[in-house]
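Fold it.
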Amino acid sequence: MDQVYRLTRRAAASNASVLLLGETGTGKELIATALHRLSARGSGPLVKVNCGALTESLLESELFGHVRGAFTGAVANRTGRFEAAHTGTIFLDEINSTSLLLQVKLLRVLQEREFERVGDTQTVRVDVRVVAAANCDLSELVQEGRFREDLYWRLNVIPIRLPPLRERREDIPALVSYFLKLYGAANNRHVDRVRKDALQALQDYHWPGNVRELQNYAERAIVMADGDELTSDLLPECVVGGAPPPRVSGVPADIDSLVQAVVRTGLDDAGASADNLHDRIVSRIEKELLSQVMAECNDVQIKAAARLGINRNTLHKKLHDYGLDGG
């Protein structure tokens, strides 16, 4: 993390694009905010966009804006996020979820600092610093043909990797102390001590949800505590060793049988070709998983998204794409 802080301070002093890499919950948005505030653009706007939360057409309009009549529902001109970020910084989270077509347009903005609103022919020029983030290895997506190589190199001027919490367990005591103070003040509670066995359990846990998961457990402990000490009974069973870790991936216990059934169906389908069999199987499995998790969570999207370890907007988009939203 010392290296992350040094890179953040050095990168903030420039106008170069920054690519933040790390698992969900490692703090990429916090680093993006720090890059903006420590830069000469700190007095300008910081605009954040979750690229995984919108469909391609909606994301294009969100980023570049549109003019009245550009598409059904465009009843007025709208300023896009790039325009709103003029003289400041735009943070593109989950950049790996963008389509190849949209990546072409993003590349132009990075290279030429100009674009057209959807449905318009007038060119808009902007002065924007771009910070992007991905929760996967973009170089692998480039090799698979799912992410443009030229855009990758434009974004990857200054890469900053945020390590998962399991790789920096020595930070856990300081993080716990910080979150206890933060949520203690917010809830008018005072839990300022951590029992030794509770701290040991926190440091031994593998943290699949990273700092965000730790933050969640600290807030829970503040609410549930009777005294001024965080004890092991205030922690989830998965942390203290009394139960298996939560399936944040949302994968059900019978995943093997599910995969086998879907594969068999795909192989038996006369219309399935070797070229699209992989994509069809992956889509079928994802749809089945979403359906099962939503059923187990009583169709509560916030709960299902937490279990799946994804953003609620991302879940909403996937449910819509698979026709599971009841629409």
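The chain has three domains: 2-163, 166-240, 255-321.
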